[in-house]
Automatic annotation (TrEMBL), chain B:
This is Multiple sugar transport system substrate-binding protein. Residues 1-28 form the signal peptide. It comes from the Bacteria. Pfam families: SBP_bac_1. Coiled coil: none annotated.
Amino acid sequence: MAYWTTRRRDVLTGYVFIAPQLLGVLVFVLVPVGMAIWYSLNKWNVFTGRQTFVGGDNWAALASDPQLSSVLLATVLFSGGVVVLNIGLGLLIAVLLNRRFRGATFFRTLFFSPVVVSVVAWTLVWGFLLQDNGGINGLLGAVGIEGPNWLQHGDTAMVSVVISQVVRSVGVNMVLFLAALQGVPSELYEAARIDGARSRAIFARITLPLISPTVLLTAIITIVGALQSFAQIAVLTGGGPELSTTVLVYYVFQQAFEFNNIGYGSTLALMLLSFVMVLTLLQWQLRKRWVFHEQ
Amino acid sequence: MSTKDHLMITARKLLGALALTTAVTLTAACGASGTSGGGAAAGSTDVKLRMTVWTSNEDQLKLFDSIGDAYKAEHPEVTSITFESLPFADYNTTLTTQIAGGNAPDLAWMGDLSKDLIGADALVGLTDKLKATNGWNYDDLEDSATKEFSRDGKLYAYPFSNSPFALYVNNDLLAKAGQKIDPKTLTWDQVAAAGAAVHAKTGKAGFVVRDFDYTAWNMLATVWTGFGASAWSADGKTCEFGSPQMQQAFTFLHDAAFKTKAMPGPGTKADFFAGDAAFTVAQVSRASLLKGSFKFGLYPLPAGPAGKYSVLGQAGVGVLAASKHPDQATDFLAYLTNPANAEKLAQFFPPPRKSLLTGEKLAANNKVLSAAQLQEVVVDQLPKAVTLPNHTKPAEIAQKGKTALDALWKPDADIPAVLNSVCAAIEPILAK
């Protein structure tokens, strides 16, 4: 029997097709993660290139880092705010723009357009708008309201970075939800209306279950994206005031590249990686309970 | 063997290959540890030198290139000298990343990173080479200029730029607000009073400490030095933010920001050079930003309660020990900074050479400032000037200090408590 059977050829073809992706995963994921693990076990003097093996010292330093609790709190507040608003507003805007009305295309373009703007340029503009004598306070002043000094107080600084991030990225979720909404069969709505169902019930019983796979997808990508948001913080607040907007990914950058503590920065990066993995796996498991899969 | 079994075996092989590659990479990383560059033999040919700079000014880069070309003409073994312009905001991060990544430049400009580089033995000592270079004239260097770049009497970076901080005044704005100042007897209290009057009358800002922007607090040394305060002790081990002098200085700044409004508060932008402020504290080299849109004055810093003083902003250039050609790089540095080239560089950067430090010589190529101005704000200030606070781990100290100091920039701040919290935050780093 010949070695190159049809089955073997198919298997080989399959591997050839996934080879570029596999190589990418190897070079850009597995190797960096492996190196980060190695660096987390070392103290690295970047000025001389000397590495000293310190075992679990960097991991033990996590427990005694006085700034870490503030950083984790800021991470939870930022990510929580971004995820809730991004999914909630994305869905709301998609539902509103899913109707047929004059100018719907214009509004879809309007809400999506910030996504294509450079994040640094976008954040710089927001920085000017949010400064004490900036555009937003100017508008508030025109209607007799004295606006706060947005980026100088902990609460308003966090609100500011969350809003600037959500306004920029909500268009992605909106487009995904729009695509999902347009895939819901119209006869289901017609049947529900004939049966006398109200709009709220139609949304809860028909729309939401049918777009739940998209909700799962957007939840995963929004959470991962929120945990990786860096430029907004770096440009808008620099992690301040105090540590109110120092999220984990920004703290990783500070430790590794500004303070040259590459070992500790790698340890923090691995902690962030484990958070992302746990949250993603959790959602993947929970999907069985709330994601509707048509049989 | 079934297809399923075959696929599983192939998948195992693939995973094994991935693990092996990762392990090989890790081993390579282990093997790389402990290496620190190292120089090639002095007699190498085809030497390519690279120097990182933070200027992107075309005229300055042209001057560097012309000096590099002249050096190459005399040294055929050096085939290329590149001046790599890195953005100032990320300069330290980029430079350290290049060093950590095994791609260190041969020479580098440096500011507050110098202490770390010198402390880590990452720079080549220059004194012997410069003293031995014919005509270099080492004794011509101003002592106050070399202090920050020296350790145990040995120079590790040539202080090519020594730009004292000065007070720029927008005379048009002062006139509009009916304010007059006497630069000979000017004090910080008078600047604050005039600044507050300008703000009240015109809506423009009073005085601005340029580049401070409520984040880069070390720039405030241009004010607190006049109050007799310093960030830490001379040996760099004890924090002095809690001193009465520092409290007095920060009370002055806090009042200016929140009570008299002489200084724009946090989150308010005001650019002196665009005509938005009556005064600014900035380096003399910033005079190139003046575009003639208003009448200006340039004076030494106003006196504080502790009297007259001067603060210096510096940049040095050193040779990295990780350079592949440290000998050739040091030789080029000696050439770049010899008396003739130092005179050329002086048109952009106030030099450390006493022989070049006269108002007339500095004014020869300066289109904005007169000889008298340069004599008063540069030449007369340099010998007694102190530098901005500089310490090892500058970025970490800056961030920890800023995090604590943020609490001060509120109208009802408890100034002594906040300043003590700055010490609590930075003292563990100072003690390292």
